[in-house]
C-alpha cells in the first residue's frame, strides 16, 4: 500500500524520502519515482515536515516509531506523524502520547480502498487526533485519497476502521451466499448484479468483487490473513466497550477455515469458496 501512496506524494511535487524494511523495495521505488531511500526510519524522518507510516500491526508501529532508530528520534518539533496502519486504538493513543512528549503532532489514519485504491489515489482515510494536526496533514493526504475525515481524538480513526471491517465481513458473507444461490438457480450472475446493484442491495463489494467471486478468482487485493488480524483488533475492542459481534465472529471462523486450507493469501472475497461443492 505504501509504495503507490508514496508515488502519489512524489507526483504531487513533494520531496519524498522512503524507508522499507526490505531495502530492495525502497530502492525500486526510487528507481521508479525519484526521491531518495534511507536505511532506517529515523533517516527517512530527519528534517521531514510530515512522516507517513504504513506497516502491519501494533508491534510494527511501535518498532518503527519508538524502537531503535524510530522516526520519533529524528522528527523535529512541529512536524506531524501520520500512521496509515490498521492497528489498535490503544497503540494510536500510545504513539500520540510519545509524539506529544517531543513536540510532534500525530494523526492515526487507517485507510480503506485496497491496493487498487492506493494505486489510483482514491483511498478513504479515517482519522483521529487533534484538529490542528489533521488540518495540516489533509493537503498532503489529498495526494492519494478521495475522502479524509476526522472522527475525534487520538484512536478515533482506528475505531472507525474497526467499524469498516465489521461491516465488510458481513457484506462479503451475504454477497457470497447470494452469488452461490444465483449460480445454483441457473441465473446469470452478471445480469443479477447489474440489476440488484442499482437497488438497496448495492455495495462496493458487489460492484467490484461479484464477478471475480463468481469466477473463483481471489487474488484481488486485501488478504484474508490481514482481515483476520483486523477482526482480532475488533474483538479486543468489543471486549472493552461491551459490543456484541455475533455475525462478525461467525465470518471470522469462516476465514479461519480458509486459512487452515492454506488460502491465507486469498483476498477477503474468498468466503464464497466455502459454499461450493469441490467433490
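Sequence proposed for the structure above (279 residues):
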Amino acid at each position: 500500500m505504501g509504495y503507490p501512496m508514496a508515488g502519489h506524494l512524489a507526483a504531487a511535487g513533494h520531496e519524498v524520502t522512503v524507508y522499507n524494511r526490505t531495502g530492495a523495495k525502497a530502492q525500486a521505488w526510487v528507481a521508479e519515482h525519484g526521491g531518495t531511500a534511507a536505511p532506517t526510519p529515523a533517516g527517512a524522518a530527519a528534517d521531514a515536515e510530515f512522516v507517513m507510516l504504513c506497516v502491519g500491526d501494533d508491534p510494527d508501529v511501535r518498532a518503527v516509531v519508538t524502537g531503535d532508530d524510530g522516526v520519533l528520534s529524528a522528527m523535529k518539533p512541529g512536524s506531524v506523524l501520520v500512521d496509515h496502519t490498521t492497528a489498535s486504538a490503544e497503540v494510536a493513543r500510545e504513539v500520540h502520547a510519545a509524539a506529544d512528549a517531543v513536540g510532534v503532532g500525530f494523526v492515526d489514519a487507517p485507510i480503506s480502498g485496497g491496493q487498487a485504491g492506493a494505486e489510483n489515489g482514491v483511498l478513504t482515510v479515517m482519522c483521529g487526533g487533534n484538529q490542528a494536526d489533521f488540518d495540516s496533514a489533509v493537503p498532503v493526504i489529498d495526494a492519494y485519497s478521495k475522502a479524509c475525515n476526522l472522527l475525534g481524538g487520538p484512536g478515533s480513526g482506528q475505531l472507525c476502521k474497526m467499524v469498516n471491517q465489521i461491516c465488510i465481513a458481513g457484506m462479503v458473507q451475504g454477497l457470497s451466499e447470494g452469488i452461490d444461490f444465483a449460480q445454483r438457480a441457473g441465473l446469470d450472475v452478471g445480469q443479477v448484479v447489474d440489476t440488484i446493484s442499482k437497488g438497496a442491495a448495492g455495495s462496493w463489494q458487489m460492484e467490484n468483487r461479484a464477478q471475480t467471486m463468481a469466477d473463483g478468482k481471489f487474488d484481488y487485493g486485501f488478504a484474508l490473513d490481514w482481515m483476520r488480524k483486523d477482526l482480532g483488533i475488533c474483538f479486543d475492542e468489543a471486549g472493552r466497550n461491551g459490543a456484541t459481534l455475533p455475525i462478525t465472529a461467525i465470518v471470522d471462523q469462516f476465514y479461519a477455515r480458509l486459512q487452515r486450507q492454506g488460502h491465507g493469501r486469498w483476498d477477503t472475497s474468498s468466503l464464497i469458496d466455502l459454499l461450493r461443492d469441490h467433490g
